[in-house]
Amino acid sequence: MIALDFLRYGYGIFFVVLQSALMFGFFLEWRRDRRATGAGMDGKSPNFAPKVSVIIPIHNEERRMEGLLRSLLKQDYPAQIILVDDGSDDKSPEMLAEFVENARKLGMNDCKVITLNENPGPNRKQYALSVGVAEASGDYLLFTDGDCEVPPGWVRAMAGRMRDGDVGVLIGPVFKKKPGKGFFYLYQCYDHIIRYNYLAGSIGLGAAGGGFGNNLIVNRAALDAIGGYGAVPSSPTEDAALISLIRAQGKYRVRAAALTDAAVETCAEETWRGFAGQTLRWNNGGLFSPEPVTRFSYNLLMLLITVGAFAFPLLPFFPWLWPLPVACLIVMTENTIAAFAFFRKKLPKGGFLNLGYLCTLLFAQPYFTLMTIMGYCGVKSKWKGRKLP
């Protein structure tokens, strides 16, 4: 009985302490980011004007790319823009050609479209990015996706945070647009912020293991230090693999932006199936990361959530299991409070006690558990309808 008490109470205490540590790590990144931008690291200093290459893979983004192209034309910092068309068979090529022409009319002459007629994969997006990186001439490489929209000061805000020369890579926040009403879209917005809080919290604790690849800037020198982009192993989440390599190399630091001036907005998935596929890709990238520290920490977190989720329906039969689901409830409550504390303006309307947010809080735990079980069972994720390794 003593051993059982030690396990159940030990689980609860450990999980809550781990969660609190991650949220403290996020607070540290938020405080550092405020100091950095307040000290002139917002890209507005004339003494820091690096060349930035923006690299964007495109595959059949006709329906979701207009916002991206429009927002790129409004950037207040000059940048090389490389759009890699990975064999699109919709109207994406025509839209990209029109964008380059419009950019030239505005004096943005360093824009190009690279068309891939072949892509050997196995991660086709990763290969498209490698082609873009090879063509880039910037001191810093800034990445986003075709379904995103960026603020006018995005390039400046992300590049400015790289002013400290030992920063090798910086991740920025990504928020999902809410195109409609209902729990489905609300949960996507909530899920994205929760994931970013975990990523930034890990970075704040010195255990960086991932980031959103649609808002990521890399120091070219740091990329060269790990052997170039070709050294990044094939992964469902190539962005996380890149970040882990740079952190493990030990020469450069990984940082996270915690203010919304550098935030990107991305389109919400239109179906549960599409959203689950996206989540599975991210989850598998963490569960099977090629970098040991990232793999261990992510598996630990997902297993803690999974244990709590399985304990909940067993409570009527084994009430002594109560520390497990209670710990998970405390953890998700902390996540929700942090989301409102730091990114309230980016969340759909409704207070913390709004019924919709209470539902998202309760739904997150079984949803994460389902994705984890699918990953362990070998279910493969897809990107643009293409199965990933």
Q: Low-confidence segments, ≥5 residues, pLDDT <50?
A: none
Please name the fourth-level CATH homologous superfamily of the domain at 40-200 and 207-268.
Spore Coat Polysaccharide Biosynthesis Protein SpsA, Chain A
Distance between the termini: 45 Å
H/E series: HEHEHEHEEHEEHEHHEEHHHHEE
Strand content: 5-15%
CATH architecture of the domain at 40-200 and 207-268: Alpha-Beta Complex
- SSE-based structural type: alpha/beta
How many beta-strand elements?
12
What does this 3D model show about the protein?
The chain is an alpha/beta fold and 389 residues long. It has a domain at 40-200 and 207-268: Spore Coat Polysaccharide Biosynthesis Protein SpsA, Chain A. The protein is 50% helix and 13% strand. It has helices at 2-38, 66-72, 92-105, 124-135, 154-160, 183-204, 220-225, 238-249, 272-287, 292-311, 323-343, 355-376; strands at 52-58, 80-86, 111-116, 140-143, 148-149, 167-171, 174-176, 216-219, 253-256, 264-266, 382-383, 386-387. A 7-stranded mixed β-sheet has the order 3-2-1-4-8-6-9, with helices on both faces. Helix 11 (323-343) crosses helix 12 (355-376). The radius of gyration is 21 Å and the shape is globular. The protein starts with a helix and ends with a strand.
